[in-house]
Amino acid sequence: MIMENSSSITVIIAGKNFAPVCDYLKNVLPEISLEMVEAKDLIKKAEEAQIIFPAMARIDEKIFKRAPSLRLVQQWGTGLEGIDIGSATRYRVAVANVPTAGSGNAESVAEWYVMAALCLSRKTCEIRSQVRKGYPWGSPLGQALYGRTAGIIGFGGIGKALALLLKTFNMKILVVDKKPDKITAQNIGVDWIGEVADLLHLLKKTEYLFICIPLTAETKNMISQPELALLPKGAFILNAARGSVINQQALMQAMDSKHLGGVALDVYWEEPPKPNDPILDYPNILATPHIAGVTDVSYQGISIQVKENIIRVMKGKLPLNCANPEVRLKDMK
Fold this sequence. Notes:
Elements: E1 10-14, H1 20-28, E2 33-37, H2 42-45, E3 51-53, H3 61-64, E4 72-74, H4 85-90, E5 94-96, H5 105-121, H6 124-127, H7 130-133, E6 149-153, H8 157-167, E7 172-177, H9 182-188, E8 192-195, H10 199-205, E9 208-211, H11 225-230, E10 235-239, H12 248-256, E11 260-265, E12 285-287, H13 296-314
Parallel strand pairs: 1-2, 1-3, 3-4, 4-5, 6-7, 6-9, 7-8, 9-10, 10-11, 11-12
Helix pairs in contact: 1-13, 5-8, 5-13
């Protein structure tokens, strides 16, 4: 037995997406009661839950006041923008996430960015049908990553892992971050690092723009029409952070004007996007279903840290990487 009375722990995953989470949770905590619940049924099901994983669902006061046994809202990853942390604290519920660094998640997301950059550069969206048709053969001309300039917004776990990979392509790497880590940047071989206030300098020189920052009030619509206009014509944008860091209308206008060479999206302004979302109609958009961090290595690493947090809160301790460390946990019944 992994922990005393673990069979009495009721865990809910709020939504039917990210199905592999169930397998990895059951592997590290086989005796828990685990259920994936549609968002519309969450309020009722939350009444018995002790642990909730948001899985893109909104977790707010409507949930907390109906969940007397709830002790922890644990994100399977980093993003906490969908959780009302203030309400969680008032209802004595801890909120925690898993940092990208140290879990394998940062490396997996960085791999997605490289994959996406290569797909856009080699016009994979355009050429998929050519092999079956047999023509045109030997075209189109792709663009090499080698020697190009990459701009990375955000230098946390993902930004650092990405910079390491991009250096193997001999890319020139420019970075902006809220708190520039100049020592790590130098060790990796970053060519220039500045503060967020220096973003305009980065954009003017960037051929591949990688968005690696969380969504906050400060970063919402950070990339809009003025910022997009500063990018060199033909630049590529890649986003596996959160959709709303980029202004959607401004992005579509930049695509309509052919200012951008292409865009890779793993995140959207609404998830999942509607089938008729016009952003999906562009031939040079690479779209994936929020899977940048969905790998065996990432999920194994996250599951180990999640297990530790579940054990901690069920023993009356705060979880690791707690977003509301001031919270007074509910008494054990």
